[in-house]
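Dear Dr. K.,

Following up on our conversation at the group meeting, I've run the structure prediction for Hvp 24 VSH-1 capsid protein from Brachyspira murdochii. I'm pasting the input sequence below exactly as I used it, so you can double-check it against your construct before we proceed with anything downstream. Let me know if the numbering doesn't match what you have in your notebook.
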Amino acid sequence: MIHFKNSVIYVLDNFMNFMADEYIDLSGNKVEGDNQLNKLLDDKLKIEYFSLGALRSMSKSFLWASIAEGESRGSNSYIGDSAGFADDICLKATVYKELKAGESFLAYNIIPLALNQAARYWISKLNDEGERIALSPIIKWEAPSFDSENSKRQFNDFSSIRGVNFSLNINFKIMTGSYLNEVLY
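The predicted C-alpha coordinates came back this morning:
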Protein backbone atom coordinates (compact mmCIF):
# COMPACT_ATOMS: atom_id res chain seq x y z
CA MET A 1 0.00 0.00 0.00
CA ILE A 2 1.28 3.47 -0.86
CA HIS A 3 1.66 5.95 2.00
CA PHE A 4 0.04 9.36 1.43
CA LYS A 5 2.95 11.42 2.77
CA ASN A 6 5.49 9.43 0.75
CA SER A 7 3.37 9.79 -2.39
CA VAL A 8 3.12 13.57 -2.09
CA ILE A 9 6.83 13.96 -1.35
CA TYR A 10 7.68 11.66 -4.26
CA VAL A 11 5.50 13.61 -6.70
CA LEU A 12 6.94 17.01 -5.69
CA ASP A 13 10.51 15.73 -5.73
CA ASN A 14 10.05 13.95 -9.05
CA PHE A 15 8.47 17.02 -10.69
CA MET A 16 11.23 19.41 -9.60
CA ASN A 17 14.00 16.98 -10.55
CA PHE A 18 12.40 16.35 -13.93
CA MET A 19 12.17 20.05 -14.70
CA ALA A 20 15.69 20.81 -13.49
CA ASP A 21 17.55 17.75 -14.78
CA GLU A 22 15.67 16.27 -17.68
CA TYR A 23 13.66 19.01 -19.35
CA ILE A 24 15.56 22.25 -18.86
CA ASP A 25 19.33 22.28 -19.18
CA LEU A 26 20.32 25.18 -16.93
CA SER A 27 23.99 25.21 -17.87
CA GLY A 28 23.31 25.64 -21.57
CA ASN A 29 19.88 27.28 -21.24
CA LYS A 30 18.44 24.70 -23.60
CA VAL A 31 15.10 22.97 -23.45
CA GLU A 32 15.21 19.28 -24.28
CA GLY A 33 13.08 17.98 -27.13
CA ASP A 34 12.94 17.74 -30.89
CA ASN A 35 10.33 20.22 -32.06
CA GLN A 36 10.41 23.86 -33.17
CA LEU A 37 8.81 25.10 -29.95
CA ASN A 38 11.95 24.17 -28.05
CA LYS A 39 14.12 26.34 -30.32
CA LEU A 40 12.02 29.37 -29.38
CA LEU A 41 12.45 28.52 -25.72
CA ASP A 42 16.24 28.44 -25.59
CA ASP A 43 16.38 31.95 -24.15
CA LYS A 44 12.78 32.55 -23.16
CA LEU A 45 12.60 29.80 -20.53
CA LYS A 46 15.93 30.34 -18.81
CA ILE A 47 14.97 29.71 -15.21
CA GLU A 48 17.80 30.54 -12.84
CA TYR A 49 16.35 29.27 -9.58
CA PHE A 50 14.68 25.95 -8.89
CA SER A 51 13.27 25.95 -5.39
CA LEU A 52 10.98 23.86 -3.29
CA GLY A 53 9.96 25.50 -0.06
CA ALA A 54 12.63 28.20 0.15
CA LEU A 55 13.22 30.80 -2.52
CA ARG A 56 16.61 32.42 -2.79
CA SER A 57 15.31 35.38 -4.77
CA MET A 58 11.75 36.27 -5.70
CA SER A 59 12.99 38.93 -8.13
CA LYS A 60 14.67 36.41 -10.43
CA SER A 61 13.17 33.77 -12.67
CA PHE A 62 12.07 30.66 -10.82
CA LEU A 63 9.87 27.60 -10.90
CA TRP A 64 7.86 26.78 -7.78
CA ALA A 65 5.89 23.61 -7.10
CA SER A 66 3.44 22.96 -4.29
CA ILE A 67 0.34 20.99 -3.47
CA ALA A 68 -2.39 23.60 -3.91
CA GLU A 69 -5.35 21.56 -2.78
CA GLY A 70 -6.57 18.03 -2.33
CA GLU A 71 -9.38 15.78 -1.27
CA SER A 72 -9.24 12.33 0.29
CA ARG A 73 -12.19 9.94 0.07
CA GLY A 74 -12.46 6.70 1.97
CA SER A 75 -12.45 3.79 -0.41
CA ASN A 76 -13.03 0.11 0.25
CA SER A 77 -11.53 -0.80 -3.09
CA TYR A 78 -8.37 -2.27 -1.61
CA ILE A 79 -8.17 -5.93 -0.81
CA GLY A 80 -6.87 -6.16 2.72
CA ASP A 81 -7.13 -2.42 3.49
CA SER A 82 -10.61 -1.36 4.47
CA ALA A 83 -9.25 2.09 5.39
CA GLY A 84 -7.77 2.84 1.97
CA PHE A 85 -8.23 6.26 0.39
CA ALA A 86 -8.66 7.65 -3.10
CA ASP A 87 -6.92 11.04 -3.06
CA ASP A 88 -7.44 13.87 -5.54
CA ILE A 89 -4.30 16.01 -5.54
CA CYS A 90 -3.63 19.33 -7.26
CA LEU A 91 0.04 20.07 -7.91
CA LYS A 92 0.48 23.76 -8.73
CA ALA A 93 3.51 24.66 -10.82
CA THR A 94 4.26 28.37 -11.02
CA VAL A 95 6.84 29.97 -13.29
CA TYR A 96 8.02 33.53 -12.82
CA LYS A 97 10.22 34.76 -15.67
CA GLU A 98 12.09 38.02 -15.38
CA LEU A 99 11.87 39.74 -18.77
CA LYS A 100 14.26 41.85 -20.77
CA ALA A 101 13.05 44.60 -23.07
CA GLY A 102 11.11 43.22 -26.02
CA GLU A 103 10.48 39.75 -24.57
CA SER A 104 7.00 40.28 -23.14
CA PHE A 105 4.85 39.13 -26.07
CA LEU A 106 6.83 35.98 -26.83
CA ALA A 107 7.25 34.99 -23.17
CA TYR A 108 3.54 35.60 -22.47
CA ASN A 109 2.59 33.15 -25.23
CA ILE A 110 5.42 30.62 -25.12
CA ILE A 111 5.85 29.94 -21.38
CA PRO A 112 2.31 28.48 -20.98
CA LEU A 113 2.90 26.19 -23.97
CA ALA A 114 6.28 25.11 -22.66
CA LEU A 115 5.12 24.35 -19.12
CA ASN A 116 2.06 22.51 -20.45
CA GLN A 117 4.24 20.44 -22.79
CA ALA A 118 6.69 19.68 -19.97
CA ALA A 119 3.88 18.70 -17.57
CA ARG A 120 2.39 16.27 -20.10
CA TYR A 121 5.77 14.67 -20.69
CA TRP A 122 6.45 14.48 -16.93
CA ILE A 123 3.13 12.72 -16.24
CA SER A 124 3.75 10.18 -19.00
CA LYS A 125 7.28 9.47 -17.70
CA LEU A 126 6.04 9.22 -14.11
CA ASN A 127 3.47 6.62 -15.08
CA ASP A 128 5.87 4.81 -17.44
CA GLU A 129 8.34 4.36 -14.57
CA GLY A 130 5.86 1.96 -13.01
CA GLU A 131 4.75 4.21 -10.19
CA ARG A 132 1.25 4.64 -11.63
CA ILE A 133 0.83 7.43 -9.12
CA ALA A 134 -0.60 10.20 -11.32
CA LEU A 135 -3.84 8.54 -12.37
CA SER A 136 -6.50 10.35 -14.44
CA PRO A 137 -4.47 13.56 -14.87
CA ILE A 138 -6.22 16.85 -15.67
CA ILE A 139 -4.15 19.93 -16.52
CA LYS A 140 -5.75 23.35 -15.99
CA TRP A 141 -4.37 26.83 -16.60
CA GLU A 142 -5.37 30.44 -17.07
CA ALA A 143 -3.72 33.31 -18.91
CA PRO A 144 -0.36 34.50 -17.57
CA SER A 145 -0.11 37.84 -15.80
CA PHE A 146 2.48 40.57 -16.16
CA ASP A 147 4.48 41.85 -13.22
CA SER A 148 4.82 45.59 -13.77
CA GLU A 149 6.36 48.45 -11.81
CA ASN A 150 3.20 50.50 -12.05
CA SER A 151 -0.08 48.74 -11.34
CA LYS A 152 -1.96 51.57 -13.08
CA ARG A 153 0.00 51.32 -16.32
CA GLN A 154 -1.69 52.01 -19.61
CA PHE A 155 -2.66 49.01 -21.69
CA ASN A 156 -0.12 49.79 -24.42
CA ASP A 157 2.76 50.74 -22.07
CA PHE A 158 5.09 47.74 -22.07
CA SER A 159 8.09 49.63 -20.67
CA SER A 160 7.07 49.02 -17.05
CA ILE A 161 6.79 45.21 -17.40
CA ARG A 162 9.36 43.40 -15.24
CA GLY A 163 8.26 39.81 -15.67
CA VAL A 164 5.55 37.31 -16.44
CA ASN A 165 3.89 34.94 -13.97
CA PHE A 166 2.17 31.72 -15.03
CA SER A 167 0.59 28.88 -13.06
CA LEU A 168 -0.46 25.43 -14.16
CA ASN A 169 -2.61 23.11 -12.03
CA ILE A 170 -2.03 19.39 -12.50
CA ASN A 171 -4.87 17.41 -10.91
CA PHE A 172 -4.51 13.65 -10.52
CA LYS A 173 -5.54 10.73 -8.33
CA ILE A 174 -3.43 8.56 -6.07
CA MET A 175 -4.54 5.56 -4.04
CA THR A 176 -3.15 5.46 -0.52
CA GLY A 177 -3.43 3.50 2.68
CA SER A 178 -4.31 4.64 6.16
CA TYR A 179 -1.55 3.87 8.62
CA LEU A 180 -0.98 5.29 12.09
CA ASN A 181 2.80 5.53 11.66
CA GLU A 182 2.27 7.52 8.46
CA VAL A 183 0.46 10.23 10.41
CA LEU A 184 2.85 10.29 13.36
CA TYR A 185 6.22 10.02 11.57
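Two things stood out to me. The chain has one domain: 4-184. The radius of gyration is 19 Å.

Best regards,
J.T.
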